[in-house]
Amino acid sequence: MKTTLKSWLGASTVIASLSIAVPSAYAQENEAEDSSVQDTIIVSARRRDESIIDTPVAVTAVSGDILEAAGSLDITAVQKFTPNATIEVARGSNSTLIAFIRGVGQQDPLWGFEPGVGVYVDDVFFARPQGAVLDIFDVERIEVLRGPQGTLYGRNTIGGAIKYVTKPLNMDEAQGNLRFNVGTFNQLDGIVTGSTPIGDKFAIGGALAKYTRDGYGKNLNTGAEHYNKDILAGRISAEWHPTDSFRLRFSADQTQDDSNAKHGHRRIPSADGAFQVTDIYDTNAGAGDSNSVETRGASLTAEWDINDNITLKSISAYRDSETTTPIDFDTLPQQDFDVPATYEDDQFSQEFQVQFNTDKLSGVAGVYYLDGTASGQFDVLLSSFGLTVYTAGEQEKENFALYADVSYDITDQWSISLGGRYTEDKTIADVQRDLWLGLGTPNLDPSNTSSTFLVTQTGYQGLERKDDQFTPRVSVSYEPTDEVTLYAAYSQGFKAGGFDPRARADLDPLGLSQQGFGPEIVDSYEIGAKGLFFDNKLLLNSAIFLAEYEDQQITVQQGADSDNDGINDTFVSSVFNAGKSTYSGIELEGFFNATDALTFSGNIGYIDAQIDEILSAGVNIADNFVVQNTPEWTGRFGFNYVHSMDAAGDISFNGSVAYRDEYNLFNVENDGFAAGANAVFPQGGPALDPDSATLFDASIVWTNASGGVSLGLYGSNLTDEEVPVAAYNFVTPSQLGADSAYSSFYAPPRTVMASLKLNF
After folding, report:
1. Each residue of 223-255: pLDDT tens digit?
2. Which of 164, 287, 528, 535 has its CA 20 to 30 A from that of 199?
3. Whole-model pTM?
4. Nearest of 638, 696, 744 to residue 26 by alpha carbon
């Protein structure tokens, strides 16, 4: 694997060192008449619009045009454009997001666990990962901020932020577009967007998208499509500008995901040998195929320019979601390890902001409040024991914060930024765990009257904890020329504690689980350089970072023997705070405009991520754990060539190669188990952790001379690489049930899509 990486880097180092790119710059290549990179890439990473060159933070900005040129369909596409980031669909899900940046994130999407990477849509924070795999339509750009966020944003996040910025309404004239996609696996999509002014002070707009696709595989047991897509999404918005200094924007969105349940690919045969290993996208699951995720939200943003220097802003938002899904851990027809589940969440947030900008002083300050609830319930059906473990719970989260970030220009070249945030976080939790005789409970299926309640293993009600923290940020930047910015920054990140939603009170004689797990804190140090070179043909961004992590929240689940008969008949969960972890690395991004027609782009990320200390009975057991979802190396190299055919329009050719090193899916390494190591599965099992992977994408797009019609052909994963992105493991080191779970979930195979877009 390391040899493969060296070969890939050796072949591309010369080019990449000259063309490591911020993809959003790509959107300007056709506007550059002198083959220069225009210093007009505007981001709002610091809650004010400014050039990416002048922004002393590590941020990747990917324009909607570039995402469209690459044939990107959902937010996980920005993973390729962002160094040291893992942005994937969660295991057993179609629309739940797993996001890690610089080694920090959230693997377990169950209620009770806070995301380490925040997702924002037009400055509205998504408190839960369910429904956060956002489809890309009507998007202006997506920004990915790396490192702790808290002095600039309403809701603090310890690892970073993904900002989804929708297109503003056109207040001057009506506009719209239609897009139709057809592709492999019977893909058929339709997207329509548009807006129109009503008078000279009011405008309305909307977007509607329908995505359908057959599965990459089949459920061989039921005949249903597996890894299919069936999503309907819509958004409406309105803007009112009653005066030149006051603006109101309302938006509402709703998404219904009725794609079939995703059960995964079993990597070993069944214990009795009746079911052998299938194709990687097929399953033999018997838990059911019906799956539903519904998300909706609304927000109202008001802005008032008091004068040329001061703007007041209010952001009010509400969101909720509902999920009903069956999870088949064993991926076999019997109910040996099946988990029907439901989840619900809702949130209300209110943010008040003041933005100010003078000749020397600029910044933002705000007050933020969030009140949210996340809840759910699920049955664990264990047919080999005739038992069901019922788990339910609710966690109420109340967050209040004061934050500010101020920049002062000491001279024309030197500036300093100081920021701070005070956060109060309150959690109230109910945790319920019952053991039933029989399969299924009336809690999830009221018609089930055959099961008998046995015992309550956990019955916590109203557990409460409060965490508060002041987190500072300071940065110094120096501009030796108008085209170059150097900066150094320190920031502290904070994520509150909580309660394990799977806690076992009957195995906790000291009652430690009632105290919950504590908060985690990271101290992040970063130096960076951004600049334009070679007559503004080359844009380079670079960052070197060091993050010292304390009390990292680690989650582990495994099978357990409740009656000491030598057979695991239940499972236990533990959440604890690792003492110390250290993450350090380098990130390079750039854009090279070789000619008026030819541009190159790319990025390289390297990270050394280590868990240094986990104390158990005074002994450091850190060597037993690893950092999850964090490849050591990531990289991408791409090009775009535009050929003018004069009156016949333009034709553009795009190509890219993206590399990801091997990495661990969980905090415990899984490199498989040898033949004879497990009595139930004596043949052994392959590694679940992914190997390194290199993906090739390409597209060709024709646009007519007026820009009103474009026709494109897009290919993704052209070499048809098999890339696992998630897994379940309950076979080794401890097995649960007769067949247990040993399965993987995969990124899409090779796909080809044709797209027709009409602008009007």
Report:
1. 999 999 999 999 999 999 999 999 999 999 999
2. 164
3. 0.90
4. 638
